[in-house]
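Notes from hallway chat w/ T.B., transcribed later so I don't forget. T.B. wanted the structure written out for a chain they're using in a teaching module, and asked if we could keep both sequence and structure tokens in one place. Agreed to drop them here.
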Amino acid sequence: MPLQLLSHAEQVAAHLRGELLRSRWSGVMPGILTLGKELGVNHNTIDAALQLLEQEKLLETQGRGKPRRIVPQTGGVRRALRVRILLFEPADRVVSYNVELLHHLNDAGHVAAFARKTQMDLGMNVKRIARYVEESEFDAWVVCAANRDVLEWFAEQSFPTFAMFGRMSGLPVAGMSPRKALSLAMGLRRLVALGHRKIVMMTRGVGKFANPSLHEQGFLDELKAMGITPGAYHLPDWEDTHKDFHRCLDSLFRLTPPTALIVCEPAIFIAAQQHLAHRGILAPRDVSLMCDDPCHVFDWCEQTIAHIKWDERPILHRVVRWADNVAHGRTDRRQSRCKSVFVDGGTIGPVTG
């Protein structure tokens, strides 16, 4: 889907549309001077935005010099939902499916934007995240890749929440994520068939072996099913920082180097591949590498990347359906998953001496 850049007038119209459908005003619309002062926008832009709302039959002109009449909305017309998307880290603002989600929601008539701060900006601290959210005035939140503590707080709030990825299972919030268990198992079986036993998964956060997510537990269970006794070695702890990630890699390869590494997220996979190559450790000659998420960058690699592939479109469509349901006053806490597949690649090979 191509990016759709909104003009200034369209952005102002989107804001005013949301306020109208929330019934902020009744009878007549505030004048251009009043709106311009409130929004800090020039009068020509305000006038152009109001004309767009006239075309949508939300406003009706009463003649030159008179305020525009607000057209009553009947027949079950839904209100526009003010949605904020709480990303995991600042770099997620340029991830393609996050940008597409923003446009999908706005195209559906909602008023959506990324929250100014991300979970990483707030130190992954539940109290700081709670304070930030409570100080914001929005109808609903989409929370991306949050941990269990963060999602438990959102689940206790009165406003609707959609968990896009993250540890949502069993919580009363809507959500969707890829179903990776079978694809991960296929990747692991491929590695074991090539002679690998020292297989390590690097996912974000600490305390993973003591309190694994469903995905991490699936990894540990599959190792056990293939005769490999899982331990903290297979699921090492590291802080969500660049420095500690590289420290963890150096520590892994110092004493008992893994023969295969499964890395979460494409950006971290590329960082790991570069880190190892800088130290003369190449895939698949010295170590097999696999990413447990897809990325369009992989299509440009001369050496094909082994990874788990899934389609983000069902997730984006599900978020929009959830927003529409909430806007119509319907409770929606359904959680679902989309399918994924294991893609073999040139970064996987047999164990060498």
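Follow-up for T.B.: The longest strand covers residues 82-86. Might be a good example for the class.
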